[in-house]
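#onboarding

Welcome to the new folks! Below is a worked example of what a typical request in this channel looks like: someone posts a single protein sequence, and someone else replies with the predicted structure as tokens. Don't worry about understanding the tokens yet, we'll cover that in week two.

Example request:
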Amino acid sequence: MRYPKSLPAGGMIGFLAPSFGCATEPYKSAFQHGLERFEKMGYRTLTGPNCYCDNGVGISSTPKMCGAEVMEMFSSHADCLISCGGGELMCEILPFVDFERLSVLEPKWFMGYSDNTNLTFTLATLTDTASVYGPCASAFGMEPLHESVEDAFGILTGRVQTVKSYGTWEKESLKSEETPCVPYNLTEPLRIRKFLGDKELTGDAGAFTELQFSGRLLGGCMDCLVNLLGTRFDRTADFVEKYRENGIIWFLESCDLNVFGIRRAMWQMEEAGWLRYVKGFLIGRPANGEPMMNLDQFDAVLQTAGRKNVPVLMDVDLGHRPPMMPLVVGSLAEVTAVGNSLSIKMDYR
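Example response:
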């Protein structure tokens, strides 16, 4: 696994829009404020040609132009790269990304989440290069910054290699065109649900049992992952085979998938051989996880994950219901969970 160099003091941060850009409010103002923040901190910034574009369908520009921007920014003098935002159709840029060239270029940290799974995941599985599943550019415009966003920047600068759960989460955002830089609206207490196989640890067992497991972090947004599955950009089975001695910790979250979509996605991943050598699961709060026809978000995952007889942690700080723990895709991680406290230590080897 290749790990990029840390962003140095006074270094250059590059921004690109392989999915949505920051062309509309509240994202444009939040992005501008983020750029001002970085420049006040002494960093230089470089914006790619699509950062303020909105002439694409589900992404900032045409797939060809977005793919060209990816290659341009990875070949630039920027020390690290942050995606402008998520979106819907980033998968369509992949035929225009030269992964063979990316595998020999000096690696750079690339950070983003949601639709950016199309790059954070493929950088690891196609080029053996670590990436960061973390916040997009506009998050750096909030005032004040949440600890999770500070952690993400700490990963880019090399100051942070261990992240911990944050205690509360946002159910309803207050961000709007009038309040583009508002912080997270943290109203809900974190309640991690812990399972060993399909058996939930409840009561004293849930509160006091310490779960520890290790493996290589791999995952992202399930909507994107199952879309990649079976395509020419899917070499996941080869990746998990290569790192079978370490085993894989799958971190998964979802956006548009309902509970039946989540259950189907888990089935697909299992049948494709992705879940071989799994050491544990980290499952984020789904954005669309309301129960349907006697199926809830937990059973949707456990139908497959529960048969693996490994730790399964659910409702953790990952994904579309912030805050989210930034994770280094491809890193060798040690996970420790006690009660509602979760710690993930990431080793770069």
